[in-house]
Amino acid sequence: MSGLGKNWRKKRGFHVTTDDLETDWTPHRPAPFGPSLSSNPSLDLGPGPASPIMTNDYQDLQHLDNEDNGHQLRQAPPPPQRLFRRLCSGPCFLLLSLGLGLLLLVVVCVIGSQNSKLRDELQALRVTFSNFTASTEVEVKTLSSQGGSVGRKVKSLESQLQKQQQQLSEDHSSLLLHVKQFVSDLRSLSCQIAVLHGNGSAASCCPVNWLEFEGSCYWFSRSGKSWPEADKYCRLENAHLVVVGSWEEQKFIQHHMGPVNTWMGLTDQSGPWKWVDGTDYEKGFKNWRPEQPDDWYGHGLGGGEDCAHFTDDGRWNDDVCQRPYRWVCETERDAAG
């Protein structure tokens, strides 16, 4: 193409080169008949009227440019659309799909492998936790069993210690009572010896087989009588059925009478409870069993329960006066002679 055509294209804003025109422009126009303008040195290109040949060339060139532009606009798609068509056509699309499939397969395999590892680790953790829980439960049960065994042993030892302390206290009280009784027996024996030698008064001593305690003499029977018969026997001995005035006297009598029912000098046959020697019952010492006296009539012997006696543990109870129990007589030491 001539330089005029190139300059015109630059002025019009087109960037299509001559090579493009030669490549894309399919119809080949023959060269103009006659000598070319550029090869004739004698041709005057100065100002003047345009020749018919040049006018025709210009019109043909303009027409050619219009056709070329239309042909390029119709046949040359935009670059992105052309790239997409190339990628989506033929073997390229197949290879791309195959690559994406392989990539997805690799991703799935990796995720599956990781998931399998996580499941194995979770199962191992579950087994470890289960074993730990089982061993902990066994240890707790063992400790609880040992703790319970130790607790039972401690309670058993405490119970044994309490029993031993109670037994020791009882033995101590019994020993003191024996010592007092030994001193009383020794005094009575000394008094009797003095009477036999004529160096003392019989009024200052307890009779033979009587026991002295805090200025009084006591006699304990070894057989049984009803309450009225026992009271009569004591009066014949210049004494009366025992009257308990203190806890010390209670322990002294309980120690010597043994674990048997024994009459005492307390009765309510005439109404309220009274001691046979006139001692005030309401203000005096008492040692009844729980819920006693009850004056029970269900014994089948007729009447109520009007006479008091010591039970096997030393506490008091009211009973039918006709029952044959042992008894204890009491008298003042000075009145015993």
Structural class: alpha+beta
Portion of residues within helices: 40-55%
**Any idea what the CATH superfamily of the domain at 211-332 is called?**
Mannose-Binding Protein A, subunit A
Ranges where pLDDT stays below 50 over 5 or more residues in a row are: 1-50
CATH top level of the domain at 211-332 is: Alpha Beta
CATH architecture of the domain at 211-332: Roll
Number of strands: 8
**Number of H- or I-type helical stretches:** 8
Description:
The protein is an alpha+beta fold. It has a domain at 211-332: Roll (Mannose-Binding Protein A, Chain A). 54% of the residues lie in helices and 10% in strands. Strands 1, 2, 3, 4, 5, 6, 7 and 8 form an eight-stranded mixed β-sheet that branches. The longest helix is centred in the middle third of the chain and has 106 residues, at 91-196.
For the structure shown, list the relevant keywords:
8-stranded mixed β-sheet, 8 strands, disordered N terminus
